[in-house]
Amino acid sequence: MRLTIADRGRAAVGPGPEGRSRDILWPASFPGTPQARIHAHALAVLVVITSVCAAYKGFYWADDPQVSQYREGLLGPAQAMAAPFGWMAVPLLLMCAVLAGALRSWPRGPYLGLTAVTWTMSALATFVLLLDTSLTDDSDYCTANAPVDPVSGNVVALCLLAALAAGSLAGWIAWVISRHRARPVVLYAVWLAVVAVTVVLTLAVPLHAAQICGASGIG
Question: Which residues neighbour 106 within 8 Å (Cβ) at sequence distance 6 or greater?
Fold first, then answer.
């Protein structure tokens, strides 16, 4: 048992000089610990969904004076964007714990219980977050003109692709800087953080620039 745990621990240390490019550019693959991959991808999905909702919360109604008057400077958008992350904090932390358990081979019984609770809470919290964000698209927000959708699905998809590319590039840079000794967990953390930040930044630009409350933008 100790040898098995030690082998899995060494597998999580890093891909080493012989590591495959796929494992470096896509750290969620976790080479040597396939049992962690599904949880790593689930955590990534939760982070991306939360980041997209945060961008909409912070910048979707920026051109409506009735809403924007309460968001002077950067403090207002920051508070609005913090709300989705606050709502998803528990599911995100639980998924991190499940991922850590998969990497460290926690006792099977408690781990399965934690996994069931985590996936259930994640599904419910994601549903509520998406529902709450969709309710932001309400014509009552605009005080004069009918609201228009400034960001199509293609734009969102392009932002997500750009975020994934930026995350992969950041992971590769981290691997090179560490002289091929960066742990998969470190590469994954760098990749995930860069993806989340890039999603918010790339979506913030079209959302903030668009006239959501009509062409005149007067609300």
Answer: 114
